[in-house]
Write a structure and sequence with these properties.
By secondary structure, this protein is α/β, with parallel strands linked by helices. The protein has a single domain, classed as Response regulator (Rossmann fold). It has five helices and five strands. A five-stranded parallel β-sheet has the order 2-1-3-4-5, sandwiched between helices. Strand 4, helix 4 and strand 5 (99-102) form a beta-alpha-beta unit. The longest helix is centred in the first third of the chain and has 13 residues, at 10-22. The radius of gyration is 13 Å and the shape is globular.
Length: 120
């Protein structure tokens, strides 16, 4: 089963997908929240790597949706964000994320976060 990368920045999303491929964690990519919400209507991913700062519906709103939706509520979520504020980390962890990575993600930080999330 594939995971899902949700990020409005195509370069970041594609780089995360490539790193996940190397870790033998295949993933689909949704370039932004609208694409993600549409895809999640018919797809339950193995895990989600989620950006927070996106236009329109942001990552915290998507995280809240995931935790309300019965078929998605147990999907592990790793937040990948450029927001290094402690309150942001606390908010997303309280909201149901299993791990937080500050951009730019590296192979090491991604692998550690995926293990923390129980994906590997």
């Amino acid at each position: 089963m594939d995971g899902l990368v949700i990020d409005d920045n195509r370069n970041t999303a594609d780089a995360l997908k490539q790193m996940l491929d190397v870790l033998d964690l295949p993933a689909r990519v949704a370039y932004g929240s609208s694409a993600a919400i549409s895809l999640l209507g018919s797809f339950v991913p193995r895990f989600i790597c989620l950006d927070i700062n996106m236009p329109g519906v942001d990552g915290t709103e998507i995280l809240a949706y995931l935790r309300r939706e019965p078929r998605l509520m147990k999907v592990p979520v790793v937040v990948v964000t450029s927001d290094d504020q402690p309150e942001t980390r606390h908010r997303v962890m309280r909201g149901g994320a299993q791990a937080v990575i500050i951009k730019p993600a590296t192979m090491d930080t991604l692998e550690i976060a995926m293990k923390k999330a129980g994906v590997t």
